[in-house]
Amino acid sequence: MEKITLDAMRNFILDNELTDTVAISLHPDSFDSVVMDYLDTNGNQIERPFEILGIEILQDESGNVPVNKYNVLDAVK
User: Would the pTM of this model clear 0.85, i.e. be above it?
Assistant: First the structure.
């Protein structure tokens, strides 16, 4: 399975035409990897909540999301 990167996240969001009605949950290792890519790209600055292209990115704390897999959740607004 291919490692999830910042570019892969952007492509996934665009390819699936995701909107702000969803959020994406990632395994903690994948989340950390994406955050590190984001920090490198944005000069060690990160916004809270953490979003990519307007989609909130969350760290899975349930243990249900495998490494390098995306879990798309309905966002509650």
Answer: yes
DSSP symbols for 23-36: EEEE-HHHHHHHHH
- 1 Cβ contact list (under 8 Å, min separation 6): 67, 68, 69
37: in domain: yes
33: alpha, beta or left? (left if phi > 0; alpha if psi -120 to 50): alpha
Number of domains comprising the chain: 1
Kindly report, residue by residue over 11-39, the tens digit of the pLDDT: 999 999 999 999 999 999 999 999 999 88
Domain range for 63 is: 6-74
Residue 77: pLDDT band with limits 50, 70, 90: low
CA–CA dist 66, 1 (Å, integer) = 11
Place of tokens 């909130």: 56
